[in-house]
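Input (structure):
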């Protein structure tokens, strides 16, 4: 899979997740799909990361490699913070629970494509 494909997929997934975070039926008890705690700020961050990913995949700004590097590191740091912070809160944003594992997975995939993967 190419970086461009990864960034396209990640961008669209984050955009959809950001939108779903504002749909009451998808967020019972403040948890997206009953699994991932979200709030308005969290949803806006997802929308921004998704929009930047989609724009990047269409060559409208960042190239796919720096996107993967930047957001790979950011999401790995968020996963670590989610483990380290008591209650999993970074100010008003919830980072604990299942978010830790999802942030770690996204961060590792993006970091792999940003730092290790060789395009053919």
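Output (sequence):
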């Amino acid at each position: 899979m190419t970086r461009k494909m990864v960034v396209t997929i990640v961008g669209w997934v984050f955009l959809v997740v950001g939108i779903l975070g504002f749909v009451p039926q998808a967020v019972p008890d403040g948890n997206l799909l009953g699994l991932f705690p979200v709030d308005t700020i969290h949803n806006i961050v997802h929308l921004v990361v998704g929009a930047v990913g989609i724009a990047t995949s269409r060559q409208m700004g960042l190239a796919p490699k720096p996107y993967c590097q930047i957001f790979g590191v950011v999401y790995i740091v968020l996963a670590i913070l989610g483990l380290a912070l008591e209650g999993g809160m970074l100010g008003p944003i919830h980072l604990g629970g299942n978010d830790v594992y999802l942030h770690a997975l996204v961060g590792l995939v993006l970091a792999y494509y940003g730092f290790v993967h060789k395009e053919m």
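Notes: The chain has four helices and four strands. The beta strands are 31-32, 36-37, 89-90, 93-94.
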